[in-house]
Every structure is written in structure tokens, then in C-alpha cells.
Amino acid sequence: MIKLTINGLEVSVEDGSTLLEAARFLGFPIPTLCHMDGLSPYGACRLCVVEIGEGPKAKLVSSCTYPAQEGLKVRTASARVLRARKMVLELLLASCPQSKTIQDLASAH
Predict the structure, then answer these.
(1) How far apart, in whole angstroms, are the C-alpha atoms of residue 36 and residue 90?
(2) What is the tally of structural domains in the chain?
């Protein structure tokens, strides 16, 4: 088992779990578009972005592909994360304005 902290809550997850799986285990909603159960994640849409680390070393990663690591600190809804998701959704809407799925995601986030 691996222990990490998500939004201030410590969680233990199986080795090999992704940050997306760990966050969803705790009930934190993370939007996804390219992630499908039963398929290998590849992080193409970047909608599932989360922030890891602290201070100047903090960075954004796609939660569907990033492995849970011992002691990692994860934020799923920081201002930086929300800005990044908004930008991704704006780009998707510009590319696919008629897509109901994209419209629904944009209105929810």
C-alpha cells in the first residue's frame, strides 16, 4: 500500500494506482474525457490535470497516467488546476462547439 495526501486527506492505495483512481476513491470528482474504463490511459485531453508537490516545485500532471507515490501531496481543485482545466475546455469548445459531451463538461466546470 502507498500513502499519499489528496486535498489534505491521507489515503492508502494499492501500488500501481493512478492519482485519478486514488482521488476518485476518496470521492473527489476529476473530469475526464479520454479516460475510459477498460482502456489504457494516455492523458491526451489533459482535462484530469491535478497539482502535485509544493512551493516552486509544484507542477501539473495528468492524473489518469501519473502513478500514486509514497508521500505525494496532491491538489485536485487548486486555483492553478481550475485555470488549466478551464483553458483546456475553452480549446475543446473552440474545436468542437457542437459536441454535447464537451458542452456538458464545460458547463459543469
Answers:
(1) 22
(2) 1
